[in-house]
Specification:
The complex is a heterodimer.
Chain A: E1 4-7, E2 10-13, E3 19-25, E4 31-38, E5 42-51, E6 54-57, E7 64-66, E8 76-78, E9 87-94, E10 103-104, E11 108-112
Parallel strand pairs in A: 2-11
Antiparallel strand pairs in A: 1-3, 3-8, 4-5, 4-9, 5-6, 7-8, 9-10, 9-11
Chain B: E1 3-5, E2 10-14, E3 19-21, E4 24-26, E5 32-39, E6 46-52, E7 59-61, E8 64-69, E9 74-79, E10 88-96, E11 105-107, E12 111-116
Parallel strand pairs in B: 2-12
Antiparallel strand pairs in B: 1-4, 3-9, 5-6, 5-10, 7-8, 8-9, 10-11, 10-12
Classes of the chains: A mainly beta, B mainly beta.
Chain lengths: 113, 117
Amino acid sequence: DAGITQSPRYKITETGRQVTLMCHQTWSHSYMFWYRQDLGHGLRLIYYSAAADITDKGEVPDGYVVSRSKTENFPLTLESATRSQTSVYFCASSFGGATETQYFGPGTRLLVL
Amino acid sequence: AQKVTQAQTEISVVEKEDVTLDCVYETRDTTYYLFWYKQPPSGELVFLIRRNSFDEQNEISGRYSWNFQKSTSSFNFTITASQVVDSAVYFCALSEASRGGGNKLTFGTGTQLKVEL
């Protein structure tokens, strides 16, 4: 399917476990982004990537790890999940940086018990 | 640092009323971009508009219109003749073009719009 997809769509995990959220886009966009959405905060940038093998921190990177070995994939890993990481996670992509329109995936709802 | 303020947390209107969602931003850059996104109850984020800081013309798209005023650092969004399907959370966002912007898209906290019959 064309577009940007995320998996899983829902995830329940326990404190201390490692969790990986997947993001895949078929537009060949150079840039990809990970955001978390929490009540009262809107969306906040966790990490972004300008191209394969190029990643950089956003506003709230602590506790997260990203990689980008292929242009179309941008996985986000919570190395040791904490309850404060319970959130809705959105992946986005764009042709350019943040000044270009970002198109968002459907989101992943993560609950950390 | 860039900042976006959406002071209206929640707005309720009756169908067919016009409604304006406010967005006020702060930036030190002269070149920047403003966006509006819609998040319906299903949860996805839908792109509505992108506007650069040099284009102050108002934009109209069907029942939607946007009023960009650099003098007041505002980028307000108006829905004319609102419909129940317009019920959603609407986000305003800002991106600076300078290197110091760090490819950061800063979102406001959103305005929940409820349109009732």
